[in-house]
Design goal:
Layout: H1 2-22, E1 24-31, E2 37-42, E3 47-51, E4 58-65, E5 74-78, E6 82-87, E7 96-102, E8 106-112, E9 117-120, E10 123-130, E11 135-138, E12 143-150, E13 157-159, E14 167-168, E15 174-181, H2 208-220, E16 224-230, E17 235-237, H3 255-263, H4 266-275, H5 277-284, E18 309-319, E19 333-337, E20 340-341, E21 344-349, E22 355-361, H6 370-383, E23 389-395, E24 399-406, H7 409-415, H8 427-439, E25 447-453, H9 468-474, E26 477-482, H10 485-491, H11 502-505, H12 512-525, E27 530-531, H13 536-550, E28 553-559, E29 573-577, E30 582-592, H14 594-603
Parallel strand pairs: 2-6, 2-8, 3-7, 3-9, 8-10, 9-11, 10-16, 11-17, 12-16, 13-17, 22-23, 22-25, 25-26, 26-27
Antiparallel strand pairs: 1-4, 4-7, 5-6, 12-15, 14-15, 18-28, 18-30, 19-20, 19-29, 21-28, 23-24
Helix pairs in contact: 3-8, 4-5, 6-13
Amino acid sequence: MKKYFSNIIFLIFIFGIFLNVNAQDFKKDLSISTFGTIQVKNLSGKVDVQTDEELENEVLLEIDAEKNFTENDLRINAKPKKIDIEIVPISSNNRVDVKLKVPSRTKVKVETREGEIRLVGSFIQADAETNTGTIYADVPLDDVRYKFTWTASKPRFLSEIDLEEVKEKAAGRFVVNGKIFNEEEDDNPEEKPVDSKPEDSENGEETKEDEKKKKKKSKDKGQVKLNFLTARGIVLLNVAPEEVPTNLRERPLTEAAKAIIRSGDVLLMDAIRRASPKYFGEFARTLPPRKETPTLTTSKRTNNGVVASIKKATVRVIDINNRAITNLDKDDFILTERGEEREVLSVEPTTAPFNLVLLLDVSGSIENYVDFIRKAARNFIQTVSPQDKVAIVIFNEDVKTLSVFTKNRNMLSDSLDSFDAGGGTAYYDSLAYTLTDIIRPLKGDRTAIVILSDGDDNRSFLPFKSLLGSIQESGALIYPLYVPSELIAASASVDPSKTVDPLRSRYVSLSSKANEEGETLAQVSGGVYYPISRLSELQKAYDDIVAQLRTAYTITYRSTLNEPTGKGASPKLKVQVKRDNTFVKLGSVVAVQNKDVSQKVKKN
């Protein structure tokens, strides 16, 4: 027995060693002179270089490796004006990522194979070479000279500002070459030396903070040269990787994209401009001049003492999983204005109707299963309350409104016979179109978007993250119902046992990307995400959505705010629930006549 326990302890010890060497960080500090050069070669992973204004002549090197990493895997040739760093791991399949923090106005040269290259900050010059890795640069754009070269493919790039036209060179090379210059800056783009002696202030003295600010300004000023060489990689200039759309090929604008541009949503417009600058510019020039943005002015308010009135606020109460909380009464709520508690007269479940948009994916992934989509859509239409208005929007590589908001269920059902499926999937564009063109004109009414899709996108101008701000601003609840296309295909089989893999057809799943984005849409909007793994779950999801929509409350309370009310809630109004892990989403607030609620108050 003693020997047995000794063996167990030995195995635990060995296992602990294995865990420690399975992944390891390595750090090292280096020195370099002002305006020095740093060269990094890492064919086993990615390289991230950032300038740090706090650093003078110090370089901070950090290495993150999947497996054990030692100095034997690292070659450094450090001289005062130049540092050469090369990663040569003993194990060829050991991924090694390199992070560097360097002084501002440093020259860097980075080489990878498939690894991403990130260059963030103020450099004198940044050279990057990779085979298929993404090159991402975030640099000051006051004075930039750039040359981006692709050796084995047509260019794929995104830029915060417009770049020069692509030129095709000999041997199949493509080059984007030009300059970016801010005319307000000094006309001389050449690098100027930094005066090591600070100028005196008016009183003959200068604080360390003043000296630090001058030194930073001097370091950040000057030309930046960018030389990027790649075989098939993507080049990003001041556009973060998470802001990149699913399709980088510049193409004519779709009707969805044009509608988004007409909406005036600045964030969405900028995303489309980056994805297709040529066609964006051509379309923008055809639009009439935009009206001036209204400005805020201080209004004269008469003060006739405290004005008491009765108001009604519509609220939804959800838990940490975005699930609506039911069976609340007035004792569960605390309502304050300007931090002062107000009397809650009554709390009742709301019966106000919803405006629902049914957003249907009719792209190529379900081309052979149109009847399934029609049936699923009709089932939803029959499930929602008769008092709710429904609009139907379909999308593939573009978007189309099948029906505007209506209570006419026959008209909605007939509209579902008017489309065919096929083509790419511009899911993000269609959702933005729904927010800007369908939802926004409702100006604060109770709205929700129910999405039936597999959650994947391959055609949009917009990246996913560009949608989130518009979703929050709209106030619309979003209910993504994501159905794997393989599940739809399996349902079309008359005899599942005759499929190539009958077991797999029973256990299909969504991509991790679709799952993550579905959860985000629900979380940001206050809706609920439904990943469908069995077709029988669709109707259950419909029933649950209807229950969620009906789970809201109308709070009647006494108010002392002498200000107009409308669709939105006053920022001075706060509603809380006396339960842990609950969250309140405020809807409309309206003033009512005292006599309209007097009878209800007596009953309570």
